[in-house]
Amino acid sequence: MNPLNSSRQHRVSHLVAAAAVAVLPMLLVGPVVVWQAQRAETRETQGEVRQTVAQLDALMDENLRVADRLLPLSGLKCASVARSLREQVAVTPSVRSTGLTRDGAMYCSSVSGADYQPLVLRSFAGGLLELMPGNRLTPDVPMLLLHRQRPDGYGALVTMDARYLQMALGVNNKDGPSCLQIGKEWLGPNLRTGQGRPPCLGPFSFHQASSRYPYTVAASLRLPSAYQVLWEEQSALTLLLIALGLAAGSGVYWLLGRPSSPVDELRRALAEDEFEPFLQPVVKPGQTAWAGAEVLMRWRHPREGLIRPDLFIPRAEESGLIVPMTRQMMRKVAQGLAREKLPPGFHLGFNISTAHFRDCDLYQECAEFLAAFPPGALSLTVELTERELLQVTPDIENLFQRLDKLGVKIALDDFGTGHSSLVYLQKLAVDGLKIDQSFVARIGTDSLSGHIVDSVVELAAKLGLETVAEGVETQAQYDYLTRLGVGWLQGYLIAKPMPLKAFVQGLRDSQRPSPPPLASPTA
Ligand code: C2E
Ligand code: CA
Ligand code: CA
Q1: Out of 27, 129, 434, 501, which residue is the most buried by the measure of CB atoms under 10 Å away?
Q2: Burial bucket for residue 90 (CB in 10 Å: 0-12, 13-18, 19+)
Q3: pLDDT digit string (tens) for 334-368?
Q4: Is residue 3 predicted with pLDDT exceeding 70?
Q5: Which pLDDT score, from 0 to 100, does residue 449 have?
Q6: Distance (Å, rounded) from C-alpha 9 to C-alpha 215?
Q7: 439 CA → ligand 3 middle, Å
Q8: Which helix (H) or strand (E) covers residue 508, if one does?
Q9: How far is the CA of 505 from the centre of ligand 1 (A)?
Q10: Backbone phi, psi, residue 215, to 5°
Q11: How far apart (Å, rounded) are the C-alpha atoms in residues 48 and 136?
């Protein structure tokens, strides 16, 4: 699997998880807030309608009292009671007219005196109330008829101006006027009357019947939409939820992206292509032209900056990640150098961990690396460190022989610091030794180190091995090693490890004729 692809997939899945967490507060709290707001709205409307019913009941009570006061007069001659009828109209504001009835017909009225007007008593809801669109005198003003009848067939009639009803219906409900329904008839906004479904009802409605009179008040219920609740009414809470969601989402994204262990962090860095080859030149004694280089890995960490290999290579070796990391190094170096004109016999060393020698692909990787260059353009060396123990099995011996046949050279790195050097020398087709910088550093300071360096060079000469001295920092070390006949020199005195591009430039510069002499081989 391509690590870059897998990292992209990881990032996408982390983003999806973070987005899911980010919308969670809104998804969880949003519906509750909307539900609460709608419930509050419903309760408010219910309260308003109850208030309307209470007001209408009070009006009905007033009119009923008038009817009850007139009821004993029913049956008397109209001329003797007409004045009382008019008096009741005068003292009760909501009463428009009064009348006395006999066997379902009005025989005496406060408006026209002795007059005979039949009533359709069965259309009175509950035998008590009827809504009338208007009458001869005021055809546009509906009225409410309230009829009380005695058991002997005599009765009293009170009519109420619908404008009083309208007032009670209109004032309470902030979502619009309510409607009054009596029997089949309704009284709606603007004194409109009709039969069937009242016009003031929207998709949601609320009905409340009076417990004392045969009528119902219906009100439309305008439930606020989720947008209205969350954005217009509760914008502060909504913004808080969004902010909380974003904070939680970013936190999750950060947590998911954060490597859970140093090895995970290495794996992430590998996928993010953060490892970079630095090259440190190697020269032959007395020459300034760079004759080769050692590839040294650096980690360009996005936060920590450039990280030294000794801080991460041990972990990479333990986890086996060193194998793909080295493979990546080889590819990058091949890409950077393949088109360069390299000096003849140019020599390039890679540090190869023991785990990599046990990996079956090393041979193939070396072959691919060499194939990137014209045949013979460069000599590839794999440096085997003494720090880790490599069990020399028949497979390993076989690998070294095959590498040898491929033209790959083997150098023992940090020679003299470990204890397996002699085993390696005996069993593996080793081509060279790298004298550890700890011995080089003490040249001239104590005689023992000087002797070790002398002995290593002597041993190498006897075994026909090449020698590279590492960590050459001073002219005295350079001169000493040169006198001793060391084959190659590497160290800060010549150049520090540098990025590939800088190395390519330095290599070109070092090949130019007559550069200033770096050191005299005989000095
Ligand atoms: P090494 O293979 O012995 O590499 C030589 C180390 O000495 C390098 O350290 C280099 O920068 C340093 N050096 C070179 N000249 C001088 C000098 O004049 N003075 C001093 N004081 N130091 C000098 P670096 O680059 O920090 O690497 C440390 C070690 O990490 C290497 O030691 C090698 O064992 C390991 N390493 C580096 N790159 C890789 C890699 O790609 N794969 C593996 N497996 N190990 C690597
Ligand atoms: Ca090395
Ligand atoms: Ca070394």
Answers
A1: 434
A2: exposed
A3: 999 998 989 999 999 999 998 898 887 899 999 99
A4: no
A5: 65
A6: 68
A7: 11
A8: helix 500-511
A9: 21
A10: -145, 165
A11: 35
> Quick one: pLDDT at residue 55?
93
Nearest ligand to the CA of 311 is 1
Distance from residue 386's CA to the centre of ligand 3 (Å): 9
pLDDT (mean) for 184-190: 86
3-state secondary structure of 381: strand
Cα–Cα–Cα angle for 514, 520, 522, rounded to 5 degrees? 140
> Does ligand 1 have an atom closer than 6 angstroms to the CB of 353?
yes
3-state secondary structure 269-338: HHHCCCEEEEEEEEECCCCCCEEEEEEEEEEEECCCEEECHHHCHHHHHHHCCHHHHHHHHHHHHHHHHC
With a 6 Å cutoff on the Cβ, whether 313 touches ligand 1 is yes
Out of 290, 295, 296, give the residue to mutate to test ligand 1, the one with the largest number of ligand atoms within 8 Å of its CB.
296
pLDDT of residue 522: 39
- Residue 77 CA to residue 89 CA, distance in Å, equals 19
Out of 470, 477, 503, give the residue to mutate to test ligand 1, the one with the largest number of ligand atoms within 8 Å of its CB.
Answer: 470
* pLDDT tens-digit series, residues 18-77: 999 999 989 999 999 999 998 998 888 888 889 999 999 999 999 999 999 999 999 999
Would you state the pLDDT for residue 273? Answer: 94
Q: With bands split at pLDDT 50, 70 and 90, how would you rate the model's confidence at 129?
A: very high
Q: For 416-443, how does the pLDDT look when each residue is reduced to its tens digit (9 = 90+)?
A: 787 666 778 878 889 999 999 988 988 8
CA–centroid distance, residue 497 to ligand 1 (Å): 9
Instruction: Answer for the pair 92, 69: CB distance below 8 angstroms, yes or no.
Output: no
pLDDT at 173: 59
| Res 247 pLDDT > 50 | yes
Q: What is the pLDDT of residue 523?
A: 33
> What are residue 380's phi and psi, to 5 degrees?
-95, 130
Burial class (CB in 10 A: 0-12, 13-18, 19+), 335: exposed
Starting from the CA of residue 441, give the closest ligand.
1
Contact 348, 292 (CB under 8 A): yes
Instruction: Write the DSSP symbol of residue 261.
Output: S
CA of 129 to the centre of ligand 2 (A): 109
- Closest listed residue to residue 477, CA positions, set 520, 452, 442: 442
Does any ligand 1 atom lie closer than 6 A to the CB of residue 249? no
Q: Output the CA 322–ligand 1 centroid distance in Å.
A: 15
> Is there an atom of ligand 1 within 6 Å of 443 CB?
no
For residue 219, what pLDDT band results from cuts at 50, 70 and 90? Answer: confident
Ligand 1: residue of 275, 295, 306, 351 to mutate (most ligand atoms within 8 A of CB) is: 351
Distance from residue 382's CA to the centre of ligand 2 (Å): 9
